[in-house]
Amino acid sequence: MNIMSEAAVEKALDKKMSTVNFKMVGKDVSVYYGEKRALFDVNLNVRKNTVTALIGPSGCGKSTFLRTLNRMNDTIEGCRVVGKITLDTDDIYDPTVDVVELRARVGMVFQKPNPFPKSIYENIAYGPRIHGLARHKADMDEIVENSLQKAGLWNEVKDRLQEPGTGLSGGQQQRLCIARAVAVSPEVILMDEPCSALDPIATAKVEELIHELRSNFTIVIVTHSMQQAARVSQRTAMFHLGNLVEENETDKMFTNPDDQRTQDYIMGRFG
Amino acid sequence: MSSAAITDTVSPAGVNWHSDEMKARRKARYAADRRLQIYGIIAITFALGFLAILVGSLSFTGYKAFTQTVATVEIVLSTAKVDPANIGEADWRGIVRGALRGLVPDMKRSEERKFFEMFTSSAPFLVRDAVVADPSKLTGKSSFAIPMADPVDQLAKAGISRDVPENQRRINDKQIGIYDQLVANGVISTPFNWGLFFNADSRFPELAGLAGAISGSFWSLLVCFLISFPIGIAAAIYLEEFAPKNRITDLIEVNINNLAAVPSVVFGLLGLAVFLGWMGLPRSAPLVGGLVLALMTLPTLIIVTRVSLKSVPSSIREAALGVGASKHEMIFHHILPLAMPTVMTGAIISLARALGETAPLLLIGMNAFITSPPEGVFAASTALPTQIYIWADSPERGFVSRTSAAILVLLAFLVLMNGIAIFLRQRFERRW
Ligand SMILES: Nc1ncnc2c1ncn2[C@@H]1O[C@H](COP(=O)(O)OP(=O)(O)OP(=O)(O)O)[C@@H](O)[C@H]1O
Ligand SMILES: [Mg+2]
């Protein structure tokens, strides 16, 4: 079912370095919400400097899997994760792991734009400040400008940095959230349906942005749009009822998938 | 709906929106809307009506207390009569009586006692204190405003009728005659009664004021706020953000909700037993009053704070955690600031409730008779509601209007506090 056999994954882990450059490796990941099991032994690897799209019908566990990658599930009452997920070589569910550091290294952009009700500047500066990434105001100004540049928002907001972030349009807010995630210099950025609240033009901007971010970051994106997955990702993983059905190169996935269920889903036969 | 539906036809789905039955149905629904509105208006009218009656009747009885009948008396002082180094030791009684005698030169010696009774018996002390406060009065002529005793004050404000037989009123015909003479001479006036706010309590209505009660209430509320606010917020944050959801926290939650409904007199008994009996804190002290009021407001404050923490959208929590904020950073940088306006509103409204609370303060002795404002949280004191209680119990006529006036002052403070709460809510309310 997987692109790599279990043994190969094991081997890659053992060597602490893989021939293919895996940024994150999920092994036999299962997630329970109380008694209810939402993910079934998912084995999914995320390649470095690659955009990986997670697709699948609603309720199949895409968000659940995504949130295991930076332990956002910890905040949900009764949620339990079993299995092993590594970032580079560190087991992120190890009791000694510092979640704050993990979430700084694995940033997240949410489905609904959620800027802090503070100024645009403060939205970006907050993360770097708590992590102590800027020593002086000038450093911070630079981080803010760089992040907004990377998010393609700088020209639109450079004259109104002190205005509230909540006053921006939906698309701008989402790019602000991306800039906020970028500002902490994460290694991986998780995006849960980042364009679902945006119009086609704003969506195009965000997609373009994802393209550019790819050279510096590893990106995992959940999307409901097949076209979007095809446009932005190099690899695609298809979930169904809590199982990982197939993970493959995006081109192959959309032209000649290995699994019948993927074909059906892409053809719009269920979902 | 297609344009055809606007004329009287059946819509494609087979529903005829223009049938009489449909029209009648909609009409009934609109009628229900209107009924609800009318009920609301009636309810508000009732509430406002009762409020108007309350404030109206209080003002009617209380307005008299906001002025005080005084006699303006000229007193000539010299360093011969008063030793500047020892002002307090001078014969103030003699000096004041001499000056008062000058108001009615042809007074018979036998009538003097009744005449002096017309002025407040504390007149010598008032004059002494005024001179101590301003020693320049020691030489030459200065005028002093001397409050008239309660019966004269009542006469001036038509609280005592001249038609009542002499033996049934506390002021005799002779005194009325003198009063009229003083009025004719322009000695009598009724200025605004600042003493109501700046004097402490007194047995004599003409001198009694709310200074002690107001500062007692102030100290109590300060203690109450300083204790309940941090503890309430800390408890709420712990319960809402950190506590595991289990039997014990469920039990704590139920108990907090129950405590919020416990009658305040019970907290007074608790304060009596624990703070006075066991810890040996001083009776009647604003410190103890504040502690008891803090116990009383804590549950409400915890509930309000928890609700407002809960109402901060989870997207903000996720945003904070998503950039790697720790839990305490999430709470103190994002959640609490957003919840703060509501918390402050809740705190001020609980404080307003504590300000009006009487029963627990009676139990810890804050209804003592105390003639000077407290100098801190350990000094014996009254509070506004207990002062009202004391005055309402006093027999002198002058205290009747003072009781109403004190209630009006209390209401004014309540309105002020609630006004601040509304202001805070509107000023800092956030939208997201
Ligand atoms: N907080 C939760 N508590 C209980 N069950 C949950 C919770 N979150 C998700 N689930 C369940 O886990 C399963 C997977 O949910 P998930 O949100 O991962 O789906 P999804 O693939 O992201 O769907 P969508 O495309 O609609 O966002 C669903 O059956 C859902 O009901
Ligand atoms: Mg989802």
TrEMBL record, chain A:
Keywords: ATP-binding, Nucleotide-binding, Phosphate transport, Plasmid, Transport. Belongs to the ABC transporter superfamily. This is Phosphate import ATP-binding protein PstB. One of its GO terms (molecular function) is ATP binding. Pfam families: ABC_tran. One of its GO terms (cellular component) is membrane. NCBIfam families: 3a0107s01c2 (TIGR00972). The keyword Ribonucleoprotein does not apply. GO terms for biological process: phosphate ion transmembrane transport. Transmembrane segments: none annotated.
UniProtKB/TrEMBL annotation, chain B:
It is found in: Cell inner membrane; Cell membrane. Pfam families: BPD_transp_1, DUF3333. Gene3D superfamilies: MetI-like (1.10.3720.10). GO terms for cellular component: plasma membrane. It is a multi-pass membrane protein. CDD domains: TM_PBP2 (cd06261). Keywords: Cell membrane, Membrane, Plasmid, Transmembrane, Transmembrane helix, Transport. It comes from the Bacteria. The keyword Phosphoprotein does not apply. One of its GO terms (biological process) is phosphate ion transmembrane transport. GO terms for molecular function: phosphate transmembrane transporter activity. SUPFAM superfamilies: MetI-like (SSF161098). The chain crosses the membrane at residues 36-60, 218-239, 259-281, 287-309, 330-352, 405-424. Belongs to the binding-protein-dependent transport system permease family. CysTW subfamily. NCBIfam families: 3a0107s02c. This is Phosphate transport system permease protein PstA. It comes from Sinorhizobium americanum.
